[in-house]
């Protein structure tokens, strides 16, 4: 079943289109900051490094990335349940696989793919900046203070910058997976694939407006911004994972497909 799922992903043109968009978002900032006419001696005192030049901190394309983030998460695979239902493919699948196994595999594959394509541009960008600048730790006093008080875990950034990057990637991966799961969950109610794909975008926009209206950090800033966050970040993730999974499994299991 899993082999079939991943084989199907590779045949979806939209999946490769999203990866190409991600590569463009990642490499444009690398080209913009690429060093010219620098000698080995220049690198000794040059303040730039992947920990500073990462698109998460300084790239203008990161704002585009934030804007399209929910679409990156949902476009890859969130509409497949609706696609199977509309085409009748689900009837063929369920003659060979138990329904609970089908739902479970689809949920986890969709979560993984949604998180993967969401975090893909940040990974490619970091690796791209590594080809241009040495991987040296940033110094708060002599470098470029991109993480200051009121930012996301400044102590971790200056003491263990690589762990900081990994943690940010994990959080963004989980956020992308949650948004993909929300789209998948709504596909049990709405069978129009195009509506399913924009549901995560509408969800984020609505919550951002609502949270800002009450003077709270928006969902986009909490998960994608360089701001100080508390335990509520993990509460939002837990609510998103549990809420989308319960909705998906409950309504998906109730559907009479055969």
Number of helices: 14
Q: Fraction of residues in helices?
A: over 70%
The separation of the N and C termini measures: 19 Å
**Alpha carbon gyration radius:** 20 Å
* Outline: globular
Assembly context of the chains = single chain
Number of extended strands: 0
Strand content: under 5%
Regions with pLDDT < 50 over 5+ consecutive residues?
Answer: none
Q: Mean of the pLDDT scores? A: 87
The major sheet is characterized as: none
Structural class: mainly alpha
**How many separate structural domains?**
1
Note the run of SSEs as H and E: HHHHHHHHHHHHHH
Written overview of the protein:
The structure is a single chain. The model has no long low-confidence stretch (mean pLDDT 87). The protein has one domain. The protein is built from 14 helices and no strands. The protein is mostly helical. The protein is globular. The relative contact order is 0.15.
Describe the SSE topology.
Blueprint: H1 2-10, H2 13-33, H3 40-45, H4 50-53, H5 55-58, H6 61-75, H7 80-87, H8 89-93, H9 99-130, H10 154-159, H11 161-186, H12 193-213, H13 219-224, H14 232-254
Brief summary:
The chain has 258 residues and is an all-alpha fold. The chain has one domain. 72% of the residues lie in helices and 0% in strands.
Top keywords for this entry?
258 residues, mainly alpha, 14 helices
């Amino acid at each position: 079943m899993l082999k079939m799922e991943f084989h199907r992903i590779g045949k979806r043109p939209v999946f490769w289109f999203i990866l190409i968009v991600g590569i463009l978002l990642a490499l444009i900032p690398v080209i913009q900051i690429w060093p010219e006419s620098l000698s080995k001696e220049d690198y000794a005192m040059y303040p730039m490094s992947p920990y500073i030049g990462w698109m998460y901190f300084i790239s203008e394309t990161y704002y585009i990335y934030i804007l399209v983030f929910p679409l990156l998460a949902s476009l890859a695979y969130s509409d497949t349940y609706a696609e199977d239902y509309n085409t009748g493919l689900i009837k063929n699948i369920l003659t060979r696989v138990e329904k609970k196994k089908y739902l479970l595999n689809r949920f986890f594959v969709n979560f993984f793919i949604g998180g993967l394509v969401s975090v893909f541009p940040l990974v490619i960008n970091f690796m791209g900046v590594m080809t241009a600048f040495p991987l040296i730790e940033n110094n708060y006093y002599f470098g470029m203070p991109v993480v200051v008080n009121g930012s996301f875990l400044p102590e971790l950034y200056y003491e263990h910058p690589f762990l900081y990057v990994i943690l940010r990637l994990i959080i963004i991966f989980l956020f992308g997976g949650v948004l993909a799961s929300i789209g998948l969950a709504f596909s049990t109610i709405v069978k129009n694939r195009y509506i399913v794909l924009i549901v995560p975008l509408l969800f984020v926009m609505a919550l951002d407006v609502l949270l800002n209206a009450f003077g709270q950090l928006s969902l986009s800033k909490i998960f994608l911004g360089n701001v100080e966050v508390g335990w509520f970040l993990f509460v939002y993730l837990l609510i998103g994972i549990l809420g989308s999974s319960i909705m998906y499994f409950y309504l998906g299991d109730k559907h009479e497909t055969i």
